[in-house]
Amino acid sequence: MSNLEFNLLVTMQVTIEDQIAHIQLNRPEALNSMIPEFWTELPAVVKKIDDEASARVIVISAQGKHFSAGMDLSVFASLGKRFTGEPARNAEQMRRLVLELQDSFNALEEVRIPVLVAMQGGVIGGAVDMICAADCRYCTADAFFTIKETELGMTADVGTLQRLPHLISQGLVRELAYTGRKMQSVEAKDCGLVNQVFDDQASMLEGVMKIAADIAAHSPMAVTGCKDMLNYSRDHSVNDSLTYMATWQSGMLQMSDMQEAMSAAQQKRQPEYANLHKKNKGL
């Protein structure tokens, strides 16, 4: 996906400025519902930003009154057509499709740089799956969150039930999943799902961009190390995680960024760090 192709996206628009990539969902007339194009565009955009080392942090927001109504009805209609024919082959095909959808949000975890999400209004169904894969979450006072799939006669299958229990209590996750009720912004803040609640969308974007700028000012190697270690420790024991940390430091802890940080502090200036390398395009 070239820079030109950023302008050809159907479901989002992308800008990169001051080492911050801003991905905006831009179908407000359809409540930013996730049509088939969304599921390929999001991971492709995130991967392109990472591969080209064109930013040090990603901010995802949305235009309009609501962040996202989740999976579009057209996707559900397409899924319905798959329940015909020979059962075993249909089941295998459905399994692969669900894994592909999961990969769209796995990309947010796998990208080397932090992903911040700024949400207003409804964060519904698949949108909850998505924001659970981000590093940090922020919302407006009018935001609400709902695991809508239960009301639709299905089990949420793209990451909510796997990631949300690492963010809030098991009991609350189960209540939200079993009932499909709305969690309002105050409750989301109190339980730790979101970092901060803002009065409105403008102040939220200003605040989140300030946090993104603070992240972008730090050593990219230090920040990507933090993300890698935190993701690993979530899924492994303390002992395994400490061993992994030691292995990381044996290769990644070099003096150049530390020396630059100390020199900048002594000289009372902003440090200047090299970007991460771009993805190798071949030998």
Report on this structure.
It comes from Paraglaciecola algarum. It holds the Pfam family ECH_1. InterPro entries: ClpP/crotonase-like_dom_sf (IPR029045), Ech1-like (IPR045002), Enoyl-CoA_hydra/iso (IPR001753), Enoyl-CoA_hydra_C (IPR014748). The chain is 49% helix and 14% strand. With 283 residues, the protein is an alpha/beta fold. It has two domains: 3-216, 2-enoyl-CoA Hydratase, Chain A, domain 1 (Alpha-Beta Complex); 220-267, Lyase 2-enoyl-coa Hydratase, Chain  A, domain 2, CATH 1.10.12.10. It has a six-stranded mixed sheet with strand order 1-2-3-4-6-9, with helices on both faces. Helix 2 (36-51) links the parallel strand 2 and strand 3. Helix 2 runs parallel beside helix 4. The radius of gyration is 20 Å and the shape is globular.
List keywords for this structure.
14% strand; Lyase 2-enoyl-coa Hydratase, Chain  A, domain 2; 283 residues; Crotonase/enoyl-CoA hydratase family protein; Enoyl-CoA_hydra/iso; 3-stranded mixed β-sheet; ClpP/crotonase-like_dom_sf; Ech1-like; 12 helices; 2-enoyl-CoA Hydratase, Chain A, domain 1
